[in-house]
User: Fold this.
Amino acid sequence: MNSFILVIPIIFIRYILMKIISKEALERAGFFPPTEGKEQLASYVYQITTLVLLIYLFFSTIKFNTLSNYMGLIVYIIGTILYIKSIIDYSKPNESGINKNGLYNYSRNPMYIAFFLYFLGCSLLIDSWGYLIVLLLFQVSVHYLIISEERWCIEKFGEEYKTYMKRVRRYI
Assistant:
């Protein structure tokens, strides 16, 4: 079975579901804060690896002949569910604009975690080491983007965001 079908939920969630919930959230999700130094390179790596991870699925096949393939399906489903939940939570920030509800009570970056799990599930489903290597590059670039986002949030939200950072972990 062609793995293209794995892309459909992520596109639906990111663009259609988010727009249904909040047009403002869709615009905020498309915003990338200014980057500095290594973060600029990370931004390019992030964009390229995201495209590669999605396009790769158009030319791959889902396999169900090993335990890791079935584990991949479970990880993929978990990542997709977490992505839906993180999108819903992201679309409903508090009055100041900071997301602290739902999954954002446990992680400052649940969307990125969900994305990683989604892509990891895809990697296991298509049984591809090449895909996994691109995913690892993607994840390293995400870390640097998160650092730039946090710097921007501190500048925009000040002490409220610093307090949030002390209470909630960056990842899990």
